[in-house]
Design brief:
about 350 residues, alpha/beta, Rossmann fold, Immunoglobulin-like, 2 domains, five-stranded parallel β-sheet, five-stranded mixed β-sheet, 12 helices
Length: about 350
Amino acid sequence: MPDRTRRVPRHRALGSLLLILLLLGGSAPGAAAPQAARQGSGELYLALGDSLGVGILTSAPDARGYVAQFHALLEQQSGRAITLRNLSVSGETARTLIDNGQLGAARNALAEARRSGWRVSPITIDIGGNDMRALQGTDNTAREAGLVAFRADIARIFDTLVAATTQGGIRTSDIVTMTVYNPYGGDPQVARSDAWWVARFNAALAEEAQKRDIAVADVAKRFLGREKELTWIPLDFHANNRGHGAIAAEFWRAVAYDMVAPQLEIVSPGGGQVARAVPTIKVRASDAIGVVGVELRLDDRPLPAPYFSRELGLWIGYWDARTAPAGQHRLVVSAADAAGNVARQEIVLTR
């Protein structure tokens, strides 16, 4: 492959994600997309986007940017090296992605990979944030025209990628796009507000993706209400390290390569009469990719979050039963992985 190919060590990025926790071909634009069953990882992962894809304002873009973290998950899940080609360009809009060469570079990369016998999958794309920013402060007429142009441009991008990854009527690559988060917050139910316009742009993007059987990572939903936690607001609108981890997790959930829930075992207590007023709860949870969290609930109410002991390899929590009524109580333990698969186990405790 050409010299813009980059490789990112998977172990550097995977840790941060687990701790915090879209060439040429024959389909005409607007034609019905071929059935896109999941193809899984190929030899090359292709990323398109704007400054988010570049990893701007992360502490280490090649390790903590969402592209790098998602790449690490792909390698972890497949158990083999996967080449990364990141074509993202800071400041890109849907129109400049078409006009300034990024989409053409993607077509060339796909054609070259095909000649080399490589399969490209997945293809991720983040675009739209700069389209919306360019319309901030404009009137509703300008924003409406901008939305129409954005929908046409994103449809062209999607059609180009679908055509370029279709052979004999069969899609050879998984394509995943994302909704754009609104770093400024606000209520999307308030008509004509900035948040309302962001929701409309995201709805248009999701509709065009759905028409072509392109998966959508709902990053906007994940960031909603967590803007200060996941971005540099008020200093900057870009995502921080934790935000890039959240974006990678949403792409991982959307691509649906990992469908296996974690293995879970309640080590202690064993059920029945509790021996202590404040019994310790020990849980063993494991996953091929990694466990991102364990939750304890007693009688449908959350208990304090357990912590993970590396020395013991256990999640450890507790139940303060001193004020609990006498009788039986239901303890439910759940463990989740980065793809959103959840395992649950429950026991009955008697006080």
